[in-house]
Amino acid sequence: MEHEKHFEAEGFEWPNVLENKSTDLHEKLLKQGQAMAHFALQKGLAVPSKLVEQLQQEQTQTDIASLTKAHNQLAELVAPAMPETILMMAQEQEKQTWFLFLGRVPLIRKMMLVAIISLVTLISLSLSSYINNDNMVASMFDMEGARLLYVQAILLASAAIGASFSALFKANSYVTAGCFDAKYESSYWVRFVVGLISGIILTQLIPINLDAVAKTAEQSTGMGGGMSHAALKITMALVGGFSANLVYTILDRIVDTAQSFISPQQPEDLDTVKQGLINQFKSEQLEYEAHLSQELMAIQQQVASSPSMSSTDFQQLLSQYLAKIIRNEEK
């Protein structure tokens, strides 16, 4: 009896779960459809009046098929914009928050705040007496206390500006097209953190000759009077934050160089190379002979099928065959 009661309880739960899922899907389709219709009308796109009437009517679960059809037609109309992105931006617009002027996408607003804070931090730290050419050129292992803290903080602020700029530039292209996907938001924050690490690695852990960099910069820009090494360090941190791939490439080259010293590549055996070339030559020769045999058989079939072939036609076939041989030899 207890088993039967438990079965009956389970039997009554399943329809409720399915009904809730159907209701959620119906509500989601309706909200996205209305958001896409508003988006299309604001863009000046020609929206069929029949679709607008379907969305304005009170929708029920019985006509979910027609709602899905209208949703698909609107999605094709607003492409490449995504329905989920359009609905998210419409919902953010309705919130009317103070930070809405920074953008209708939460990621853009957060990244903009990070960029502004990083910029203010960079300017504020540059006013300190600890930030000078001697301290910026010195290695992190040659400093201590507040002097080291201020130098590392301004380098992190510079790297944060570069990383946030890169993330904003990339995300803005998707937001403008209306195809930003919120599920990739974490990848932008990963890119930001990797940019911070890259900025410190490029300025503190990779040995770089600042005199050579400054000389090259002066030659390329035509600026005289010497370039500040402190400005170069801050610029390198910004570049490291903006392009983490650059730092990854440098580290990868260092690993390859170290590996070549530890386990140098052994040259191949000359006899093995010679035998490989001989085998390749024989293989190509066999393919060439097989091709010539096929051409001869084709000429033979043509001659057999045309007993009354004139000598002129026969000479023409031989000329074509000879021309093919010459072309193959030239290759």
Structure explained in plain terms:
- Helix 7 (145-177) packs across helix 10 (229-242) and helix 10 (229-242) packs across helix 11 (244-262).
- Residues 1-15 have low confidence and may be disordered.
- This protein has helices at 2-42, 49-56, 64-78, 83-95, 106-126, 133-137, 145-177, 185-205, 210-221, 229-242, 244-262, 270-305, 311-330.
- With 331 residues, it is mostly helical.
- The protein has 13 helices and no strands.
- 78% of the residues lie in helices and 0% in strands.
Distance between the ends: 87 Å
- Structural class label: mainly alpha
Main β-sheet, in a few words?
none
As a percent range, the share of helical residues equals over 70%
- Based on Cα principal axes, name the global outline: flat
In what range is the share of β-strand residues? under 5%
In short:
With 331 residues, this protein is mainly α. It has 13 helices and no strands.
Topology:
Blueprint: H1 2-42, H2 49-56, H3 64-78, H4 83-95, H5 106-126, H6 133-137, H7 145-177, H8 185-205, H9 210-221, H10 229-242, H11 244-262, H12 270-305, H13 311-330
Helix pairs in contact: 1-2, 1-3, 1-4, 5-7, 7-8, 7-10, 8-10, 10-11, 12-13
